[in-house]
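User: Assemble these into one structure.

Assistant: Restating your components, then the assembled model:
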Amino acid sequence: MNKSWREYLFQFANSGTLLIFAFLCVYPFYFIIINSLSHPTESAKGVYFFPREITLSSYEQLMQIPTIFQSIFISVARTVVGTIVTVFCSAFVGYMVTKKELPFRSFIYRLIIITMFFSSGLIPWYMLMKTLYLKNNFLLYVLPGAVSAFFIILVKTYIESLPSTLEESAQIDGAGILTIFFKIILPLSLPIIACIAVFTAVGQWNSWADNFYLVTDSSLNTLQYLLYTNLKSNMADIMRTSASGTMLGADLASTGRVTPMSIRYAITVITVIPVMLIYPFMQKYFVKGIMLGAIKG
Amino acid sequence: MNKTQRAGMLLLILPFVALVFVFNYLPLFGWSYAFVDYSPGVPLMEQHFVGFKYFRIIFEGGNDFAIVMRNTLVMSLLGLLTSPLPMIFAIALAEVRGKWLSKWIQTVTAIPHFISWVLVYAIFFTFFSLEDGVVNKLLMDMGLIETGTNILGSDGYAWFFQLMVATWKGTGWGAIIYLAAIAGIDQELYQAADIDGAGRFQKIWYITVPSLMPTYFVLLLLAISGILSNGFEQYYVFQNPLNIDKLEVLDTYIYTLGIARAEYAFSTAIGVFKSIVSIVLLLSANWLSKAIRKQSII
């Protein structure tokens, strides 16, 4: 009896503490979502559990910001293109380095792996990007991360765990390297491909620094960058840019149906929603990737 | 496989190797910028060579470098001190009775890892800002404080606050590796311990923790080798004139010097210094690991 009383207390205290932390991890998102849907005056009074006076005015105002659709487009584009490119490059190279017949195989592999352990520094990087005409260029978002040492390790490890008889019988049947890659290896590697794709996609969506360092052309700005400039600018600027020129914008602003804070909520929500939505489904791929990486590393 | 086929394979992989070379090795030539008095527009060969002038300036003092180093090391040290947290979190989570509950907690606590630092700033701004911050409003409504606390612009609390932010973002995700390791521990060990009459904490201390030590050790050594790198984004988005004295770290300093102030040579020199120290630390950590645990980490 004594033992189970202590057990109960422990479970209560332990789970309680963990739940508090879990609550702290998830409540901020919930808070921002319900506040973005509430009327700003209610929000100012304090909306904590349920939205009050539900209105989409903050989102309407969001749509009036001149650069919003361009930023969304750029973010989506870089996520899609970047993911496809990185997945293909990393998978292909990962496959090639498993082929013992590849000339200079260990040299090439080591060349790639070592890159994980050093960095050239910001200025040399910046200078190089400028020289390569990658400044203010969409390819900046796609090319540098295309061949990733970490993903190559993951793919190589995975492919090596596949039975070699598959490849051998295909070779006997006369299939060339590319055929084997696309028709046999790739379909069988879907789990690891999914893992890499998910990691890359989230990384692309969240990417902000390359935009910050090397892009001055505002038509190439991502949603993250838009959120950043919004957060750092003062109130007057926000009201001005969001109400710029459109009738609806000016109307929303002047009638108090929109405040700088409510716009911030709205931008935050649309920046975070894609990750939130795919996260529950992609969780197992993340975990699997970590475990694979951990075992190898 | 004949020579032609093998040459064909090499040809296939060459473009990708070229990409790796261009984006990882080519920039290294930029280290030469640290050795010249850079003037824009002049080709590298014609720049004025100054040798180790900028490296000497790093160590001379009389500039912000010492303060930046202090900030960098403090934040890294704080990170190292709290490095057992993900492990403790994982152990605590593994002790939770309900399967659904522990799965849910693990999923939810890993969410902050997947948002960008800009978004993290957006969230903390929402809660802690001076004018409309939720925390301030609540505390004032409850009568606990008179005027709002400006923690985002606080000089004194800056380090502590950043540590909290990093913990919020990283603990749930960091625990995943340990949870996987815990799941791999042989259950017979626990059963044997039960027979010997071991209590919960004894089982944790004598079985779970030792099993997690290898993982912890590797991650610790990797963290030590990265001691000069705190991450640009986190510190840049949270910086403002009020806390810059405490939050300017090496990564943001290199940016400010190099791109904002166009002091290319000095910034590059600091970057070279940082890279070399990191490599030395990594190799030392690897050697240490080989010596102590007979296993290398790279």
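Chain B touches chain A through 87 residues (CB under 8 Å).
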